[in-house]
Amino acid sequence: CAMCGSDSAPPDQPGNNCLYATGRFCGGICPGGEAVRIEAVRVTGMLDTPPERYFDDITEMMKQVFNTPASHCVLIDPERCWFKSWQGRWCEFEQEASYGGHKVECPREEGWCNYILVPTTAEILIIEDATMDARVSLNSFVVGPPYFRSYVGAPLVGSRGERYGTLCVVDFVPRAFTADQYALIVNFAALAVERIEGNKPLQDKLDETLLNDVWRNRHLDLSLQAAFDGVLMLDMRDSDWPIMYANPAFEDACGLTKRELVGGKFWDLFRQTTKTRTEIGLFAGVGDTFDVLVACSKTGMLFKFRLLPATSDRFAPSKATGLPAWAPFENPARGDLVTPQGRQLVRTSEIVDPVKCFWFAMFLETCEAASSTATSIGTCETLSSSEGSHAFSRSSGTQSSVSSSGYASPHGEYFVPDGLGVPHVGPLIGTGSFGKVYRATDANQCPVALKIVDCRQRDDRALRAQMREVQLSSKMDHPNVVRIFGYETSTNVCGKRTIDIIWMVQELCDLGTLTNASERGLLRQERLHTSPPDMGKVLPTLLDVAGAMEYVHGQLIIHADLTGRNILLATSDQSPRGFVAKVADFGLSRYTHGRGLATQMLGTITHMPPELLRIEDPVLVPESDIWAFGVVAWETFHGKCAYKGKSAPQIVCAVASERALPWPVDAPCEFVSLMQQCLRTEHCKRPSFADVAARLSFLSAARLPSE
User: Fold this and answer.
1) Tens-place pLDDT, residues 271-283
2) Which residues are annotated as a binding site for ATP?
3) Cα–Cα distance between 274 and 248 in angstroms, integer?
4) Highest taxon of the source (predicted)?
5) 506, 557, 663, 675: least buried by Cβ within 10 Å?
């Protein structure tokens, strides 16, 4: 490999006092690996350019909204984290720039922004207290100047899935926020990306066919329209709707200056046409998305704006960014926060409640002079189904100045079926190849997870896989398997197309994935990446998984994609460690009768056994899950992902050449011996989950010391 100098995939590479050596990543999130991502950053034409007001306005807004002393917009190239915009205290990093003035950058291995390159799918990076997070607790910016303590970074996700860098807020004291607040910075990151990708060098780089594919896939992204046609952010706590943010495109579209807009009142600059302000406010009260016709007080021109909550994931659905399940969210029925048991949220009164009152107003079009409003508006125009994910209902009455989508929540792209029993959908948890998962509350005001699968681009094979997950999961009844409370299918209309939607209401596991918990150090003796694992947590957690998989195999089912991201943690009063592990995601599972299945199906390559990776006659057997479990155990013990940042060919080479995952010499011998048996090349020599569970139970009870 030209990037890391390796012919295979060393699984354990610590960085510069950090968990991963991200500067040596060569595989990873982009097809073609890290080299493709770096090239995508280069062709934006943004690196080493002077500051721009567009980005400075965004970072200043984030600094204000999150009430932090610093905010920045960063691009990540091979050697450094380069700051396109920075606000606040950055004197430690400022250097003279070739274009005059100053620039800010830091070595890539020292920057925290690198961690947005680690997850398989785009996720926000949240570090509430750096001294208690193993990923960065020994980082030079934590143990030395400027002594950072908290960080929130939303990935800058490009149109083809590449991650250019981050939009971040930073503080020098521990901080925690809500899921809605995290959703807000995700949407402003989407606005930043639209500007980044609007540069001509990038457009020239894309061939016409690919460019058409990009725009076709992104026709639902309101962020695209907001960046090029204009957007405001409004504070609806005040009945006059103070304007907090305006981008240059909005100024140009409406003929108003930033001085007139930012700090001004929306209803001083614009006046309603036929609907009263109270009537318009009713649409906002339910988190609806709606269009409004208003007249400019200065010019008399009539404009159509689209309003939606600034925290809504409908702003950029094609570039959805996951928020960890442990981030608190509001239960609207009770008005309180849903948080993992025993976890206290550091609430800051200036921002916790207001963030739900921040709304985007996007410029759609100039209609005509306001003097002819009465005759020109007529019956209210509905939101066009070609502009959104639904066929929207027509508003009643004539001469209406508002048209509504009929949403009952700021989150989610589709109407929730009434029979599902989920009256409220909360912020996004995560995304995958088969759908999105949201926080939600059921009819009894209990928190649940809502999985939504959009089948518009699914072939019959993929649809069968999704229905298989529904059918298999709904029949599972084990304390360490995520429960399915109900499911439904529905049909929605998008343009002229009919879309089938699959809905599943699942148990909400409020501590997120085992992978995330391991990386943050929750299963270590101390929250340091150099700290030994806490076997009092590691062994019972793996026993939970082994017990669940013994049950699954007893149902004649092969999971086929057992990874740390498909194992979820939930708080529990019954467990001494305060949580239990539960197996989830049966989308690739197969029924079996004790025999192997010939298959071309792929799971997660880092957890695939030799019998699935071979070129000729790949086969899926129950023992394939045992191999995956061995990899999960290695990751849980080490607190990091195996082969992270390595390419698929490197991983295949490592597995095919029987280069075993290494264990430290002071690891418990019997535990290591068991896991090495799970990772035997010949699947017939691996133990069963019944054997694994029995031996883990013995080890957990005995708590053998390291030998």
Assistant:
1) 987 777 887 877 7
2) 451
3) 29
4) Eukaryota
5) 663
